[in-house]
Design a protein that fits this description.
109 residues, alpha/beta, 3-stranded parallel sheet, two-stranded antiparallel ribbon
Length: 109
């Protein structure tokens, strides 16, 4: 939706802690990226993925492979637009946003 509402050549930032639920729209999003010439950056926390219950002790664990696969959609879209995907823990999120704000505000005109 940001790609349809933002002016061409926009830099868009997406913050999420969830896997993409509409992977079927990937080609449409890539087409919008190409049409608008916008750059899309993703800030994702490392809680992406499916938690599963350990058969041995009943505790919930995050499957590293699922984290990698779920984040791949975001990495692909960022790459298609010339953007970046930054993966941080929730505890590092505020620090990452501060760095992002500092680096983007210096380039604003």
């Amino acid at each position: 939706l940001a790609l349809t509402g933002a002016p061409s050549n926009s830099e868009i930032f997406v913050f999420t802690d969830a896997p993409a639920k509409d992977k079927n729209l990937k080609n449409t999003v890539v087409a919008l990226i190409e049409q608008t010439k916008s750059v899309v950056n993703f800030m994702i926390t490392n809680v992406l993925g499916i938690r599963h219950q350990s058969p041995t002790d009943g505790s919930q664990q995050q499957n590293p492979l699922m984290v990698r696969l779920d984040g791949q959609m975001y990495r692909d879209l960022a790459q298609a637009s010339g953007g970046q995907t930054v993966e941080v823990s929730k505890s590092q999120l505020l620090e990452a946003i501060d760095i992002l704000t500092e680096s983007t505000s210096s380039s604003l005109v």
